[in-house]
Amino acid sequence: MSRSISDGTLTVSFPVAKERIRRFNFDEPVCHTVYKLYVSLAEFKGKSIPEGNNPRSHEDPNNVAKNIMREIKDTLLRNPDQFGTVNRGGLVIAQSASYNPKDQMLALHLTDWKKRKVKGETIRPRHGLADGGTTDLVIHRLQQEGYDLSEANLPLEIMVFGEHDDPDKGDISEFIQRICEARNTSRQVSGWSMAEWRGDWNWLKEVLDPIFPNKIAYNEYGSGEVTVLDILAILNLFRSVYDGKKVPTISYSSKGRMMSKFKDNSPSFKALKGVVLQILNLHDYIYSTFNKAYAGGTKKSLRRYQEDGTRLFHEYDSPRDLTFSHYKAKLEIDKGLLFPVLAAFQALLDFDGESVEWFTEPKAFWDEHGTTLLEQLVDAMMQHKKNPQSVGKDANVYRYLWGTVHSIRRDEEMKRLKAELAKKG
Hints:
Blueprint: E1 2-6, E2 9-15, E3 21-26, E4 32-40, H1 66-78, H2 83-86, E5 90-94, E6 96-100, E7 105-110, E8 116-118, E9 121-123, E10 128-131, H3 133-144, E11 153-160, H4 172-182, H5 191-198, H6 202-208, E12 216-217, E13 226-227, H7 228-236, H8 250-253, H9 258-270, H10 276-288, H11 290-295, E14 306-307, E15 310-311, E16 315-321, E17 328-331, H12 335-344, E18 349-352, E19 355-358, H13 362-383, H14 388-392, H15 395-424
Helix pairs in contact: 1-3, 7-9, 12-15, 13-15
């Protein structure tokens, strides 16, 4: 691949196999020529074509979405033979182009490729890499780091207008500007929407849709009372990886990361399939009886807690129907307080490969020991200056409550063991 500048014109040349390039001529809406091609990354070098005409300029690498760059890099290094199919490549706008089928070389000529200032205003050039700058940047970085990308092919579309510059057809500059803007307004599809397209949520749909039809949005465009990310945040509290030392504060602090958490740990989520409905029902049951458990048979109420004259536990105008059950709630419970309590019940699950069972019925356990757990939670809330958000992010609160449930379970296990020995004795 070569670059040269003569009389202000930048010429970029690189080899393209003749079976991998096609040329199309168009008369409308303005006369122009389009080349469609696939170029080997053994021949093409990243950052060889300027991108001053790209509205989403990558001159500052810190402006580039890191997650998109990771996906591009991952495909280039793990599945280079698929790169030309899964990556949309780039769009180059040039003054002219020529292809020599004998030596199989394509030459692009860019006459307006530098930004310039006119009366203090920055004028973007017409020519250059109008779309695909992120891909180009990743390719450049990997090549600079010495990676062999020769197995990958890059799709390129070359639009040439200069050869057909006809004043009667209107201002080509405005048309080129519209193209550059249009190619850079696409919105990245979210990871959880792509997951639904792949069928990653089918295991959840099998369980939830018959019971909760139209209540759960499985992609960013779906409608529902809750999203699949809300479901994952709750299920994450119960995964087998948590043992009282490692705790699931991420469920509260970063629901948005649940997609990546699922992607990296899907077996531990799917292992909960048999208890999903019970977990969600438990979520609603604890929510609806939070104040009752706190009172513990007394007249105490969470309504007493205020901060700067505002109640920490907002009272609904009328009892609110909860999403996963027939239960109703009178008070709004912040997830920063609910999640540490709910996560403690993971200590009641027995994991055996893909099989998961409850050591004891969780709602009955809550009825018996909920007051103890909420006394501990409220103490933690007071230590955090009545800040539920701070509580929900404190790993020690999760550990303490989980340890309480685990300790009660151990006592119950000892009672059961003694009872069995007594029967045998």
